[in-house]
Design brief:
Layout lengths: L4 E4 L1 E4 L2 E8 L17 H26 L3 H17 L2 H14 L3 H17 L4 H4 L2 H15 L14 E5 L4 H9 L3 E6 L7 H8 L4 E3 L4 H4 L5 E5 L4 E4 L3 H23 L5 E2 L5 E8 L5 H6 L5 E5 L13 H15 L3 E5 L26 H6 L1 H14 L4 E6 L5 H21 L9 E5 L2 H5 L1 H4 L5 E4 L1 H8 L18 H17 L3 E3 L10 H7 L3 E4 L1 H12 L3 H11 L5 H16 L3
Parallel strand pairs: 3-4, 4-5, 5-6, 10-11, 10-17, 11-12, 12-13, 13-14, 14-15, 15-16, 16-17
Antiparallel strand pairs: 1-8, 2-6, 3-7, 7-8, 9-10
């Protein structure tokens, strides 16, 4: 492409970069269709098994190549998950069955099975699990390439500051690419916030714009690309004026990042002495280095559902344990708050279950765990074992009443006794907290505070449940207002209950990391806020330039207004006046 053009997609990893495109071979693997004669069926099944065994060895060898550097450690779980998919009975047995019963070649049979598996992932409500449909393609394509004798895992010679452009990027390719240290940005046709490319990019602080449509078909290797991973914008062969603006944006971003790293060790303390702990939210172990570099004083939310990705069965106790141990060890004495599984019946791959009409309000989180006790106990035993390696805190999600908290704690104690009888080492007792994210929990926060060791407010669910809106529904998403008076009153009530019981209260929802709301949260008196790495510095700056007494006066005045629009206008005007709109 020679003329200037632009593409918009999903800003999956923030940052700005300018470089020349390196387009990965996006040719789709062709799946030939052949009808077999009776005598060809058994040799074809053997051919399939041979290709699967070869694929397994390749993934194992790739793990070995990467094992001694940071990238390899980060990708071990993902590559291992692909190995497990290779041996999933749904993939292996069903493909063999089609070869035998329908007398078709292995490639054709595998294509049919992969299509069926992708359809199952497409029907899941959770974005993390929907995104895993691409892993089915990556695994199936690897097997087919081996069936056809084509090359796989070829090392690519990237030029410096290359903007990698592709239809999609497999975890194996992503691992090899970032290992080179030459990737300036990622741009893909497919993918979203939870795709492997996004995860890799964020962990390596590399800008990424994903889900751009057909960008890989229209960009040529060597084209100059300007990539804004914050806004989700890609300019192809930009004009001089566009390039100048982009380079200025890049300069400001780099200056902001440098400033953020300089303030990483500073306390988040107001001018009048009120101190807040700033912690990090994370899903994957590879996010820890970036959080620490940006000054996270602990982990306020470690989502553990990633252990269920890319696999047909539940993870073992040992797999849970190793993941928690890795993060606890990396964080040293800093607190690590691990949320128990927030799974629902429609979120467990490999288990065919009846689709719920409204899964957000159905069998999920602590409700699901208490109905699937052995799965819950596997995680609890692993948490207890891992507690010897660091400063662990555990919290239970979607608690709606005291009985759920008591049941969950009872299960934990049952597992503690079980491990004791087995002679397995367990750490000292650690704090047990509640995620306050239902209106019922907010209303009985004073009672919950008598039996919980800490509160962590999950604003994403609390807001949508309190305002009776689904923020994923475009027709009502505009009603999602964190500064709605009902939300502010709920937050005020929860914090008051926690303070009354002398237990810490944190916030780990999206509201915590948005600088627009920082003054409000300082005024409310939170002990800690938890957010992504890139949000830590802007929030800290506002806290350090604020008087808590002034913030409280501001909140009191804001709550004299009646509508969310009025409160929002007032708060935004004050932020503009005090901080220049940052």
């Amino acid at each position: 492409m020679t003329a200037s053009a632009s593409f918009t997609g999903i800003g999956a990893s923030p940052g700005v970069s300018v470089g020349h495109a390196f387009v990965l071979d996006g040719r789709k693997v062709r799946y030939p269709k052949v009808k077999l004669r009776p005598e060809e069926v058994e040799p074809e099944i053997l051919r399939l098994k041979t290709a699967i065994d070869l694929s397994d060895r390749q993934l194992q060898e790739l793990k070995g190549k990467l094992a001694h550097d940071e990238v390899g450690a980060d990708h071990a779980l993902i590559l291992e998950a692909h190995r497990m998919m290779l041996h999933d009975p749904m993939l292996l047995v069903e493909t063999q069955r089609l070869v035998k019963n329908d007398a078709i070649n292995a490639e054709w049979a595998l294509r049919r099975v992969a299509k069926r598996l992708r359809h199952q992932f497409d029907n899941l409500d959770d974005e993390y699990f929907r995104e895993r449909r691409s892993d089915v393609d990556f695994v199936a394509d690897r097997v087919v390439r081996n069936l056809l004798g084509q090359a796989v895992d070829e090392e690519v010679q990237l030029p410096s500051d290359a903007v990698v452009v592709a239809h999609d990027i497999s975890p194996a390719d992503a691992a090899m690419l970032v290992k080179t240290g030459r990737v300036a940005a990622f741009v893909t046709d497919l993918g979203g916030q939870t795709s492997h490319t996004a995860i890799v990019a964020r962990a390596r602080e590399t800008p990424a714009v994903l889900g751009c449509g057909r960008v890989s078909e229209q960009v040529r290797t060597g084209d100059l690309l300007a990539v804004d991973g914050t806004r989700g914008l890609v300019l192809v062969n930009p004009t001089d004026s566009q390039l100048a603006l982009f380079r200025e944006t890049m300069r400001r971003h780099l200056a902001s990042e440098a400033s953020a790293l300089k303030t990483a060790e500073l306390e988040a303390r107001t001018l009048d002495g009120a101190s807040l702990a700033l912690w990090g939210n994370m899903e994957f172990p590879e996010e820890v280095p970036s959080l620490l570099a940006h000054g996270a004083q602990g982990i306020g939310l470690y989502r553990t559902e990633f252990l269920f990705l890319n696999r047909p069965d539940a993870p073992t106790e040992e797999e849970h344990y190793q993941s928690y141990k890795q993060v606890l060890t990396a964080m040293g004495n800093r607190p690590v708050t691990i949320r128990t599984l927030d799974l629902g019946g429609d979120k467990v791959p490999g288990k065919k279950q009846e689709r719920e009409v409204n899964p957000a309000m159905g069998l999920r989180a602590i409700r699901y765990c208490l109905q699937h006790r052995e799965m819950f106990r596997v995680q609890l035993r692993a948490l207890l074992r891992a507690s010897v390696h660091g400063n662990l805190r555990v919290m239970f999600p979607l608690i709606s009443g005291l009985s759920e908290l008591r049941e969950a704690r009872s299960e934990l104690e049952h597992c503690r006794s079980e491990l004791g009888r087995a002679g397995l080492p367990v750490g000292k007792r650690f704090p047990i907290g509640v995620m306050v994210e239902t209106p019922s929990a907010a209303w009985i926060a004073d009672r919950l505070a008598q039996e919980a060791d800490f509160f962590s407010i999950g604003t994403n669910d609390l807001i949508q449940y309190s305002l009776a809106i689904d923020r994923q529904n475009r027709d009502v998403a505009y009603l999602y207002r964190p500064l709605h008076l009902a939300v502010l009153r709920a937050l005020e009530s929860i914090v008051t209950a926690a303070k009354g019981a002398r237990i810490p209260v944190s916030m780990c929802g999206e509201m915590a990391g948005d600088p627009t709301f920082t003054l409000v949260l300082v005024a409310l008196g939170f002990d800690s806020l938890s957010m992504t790495a890139g949000q830590l510095a802007p929030v800290k700056r506002i806290i350090r330039e604020t008087n808590q007494a002034d913030a409280k006066a501001l909140l009191t005045e804001a709550m004299t207004f009646s509508t969310a629009e009025e409160i929002e206008r007032f708060i935004r005007a004050e932020m503009e006046k005090r901080f220049g709109g940052d």
